């Protein structure tokens, strides 16, 4: 009787390919989901960045062609662009101020510049402030009065900015350039409200220290230009219905809606040296003790 030979089955050493293929398929699906999520996040980030840029452009913080120097071109929604009628009106205001402040402009104590963010009126420290002081010189008050008299009947929002050079300051009153620039901006704002009867809702104040120079801080002439207070006439106005800025579309209607203000009295240096109880000088002196001399 013949013995039956056992048939030897060879083991399949390639079964691991099935598990490997399943793993690769799952890994591919995982990365597809990650990629789709990242694309959605990018769209959300772009929408968020556009919303922030639109809001800051409306406030005059960002220029219309980008986020600042060196930034790429960014498309701005049509509602953020300055209407042609507003641009013409700002040009008219600049021409009138050029004539009214011709002596100060010739002396390089005042500079005017009209751009996409509005009309910038720069008051240089050399003509308006003592070094390290937030109060304007008494002799400069009439010039500030001329500016306020021109801006008071307009419907535009005003932003007052304080700027310094990069030299550090440390006095009994101000520990840094941040405090000095902010104090100059807020004091000028109070002056516009209490003495020149500008509507408070139209005003805002900001201190930028040395971080927004218009000239190089490596030279004395450049530092002198950087020590300034900028009064920016924004191409947007505040309406009685809403506290938020909106484009000034109808200038005649905006001007007619402004409340009547009494004519500003003639301001002289002697009037500043002896302030009335409602002036910023009197307010400041009545709310804090007499400070030590500035630097």
Overall structural class, as computed from helix and strand content, comes to alpha+beta
Order of helices and strands: HHHEEHHEHEHEEHHH
Please tell me the overall pLDDT.
75
CATH superfamily caption of the largest domain: OmpA-like domain
The CATH architecture of the largest domain can be given as: 2-Layer Sandwich
Characterization of this structure:
Strands 1, 2, 3, 4, 5 and 6 form a six-stranded mixed β-sheet that branches. Helix 2 (84-100) packs antiparallel against helix 5. 42% of the residues lie in helices and 13% in strands. The model is unreliable at 64-79, 240-244 and 260-295 (pLDDT under 50). It has helices spanning 16-58, 84-100, 102-106, 125-128, 141-151, 177-194, 220-226, 251-257, 269-273, 280-287, and strands at residues 110-115, 118-124, 156-163, 203-207, 228-237, 246-247. It is elongated and about 120 Å long. With 295 residues, the protein is α+β, with helices and mostly antiparallel strands. The chain has two domains: 11-80, no CATH class; 82-287, 60s Ribosomal Protein L30, Chain: A, CATH 3.30.1330.
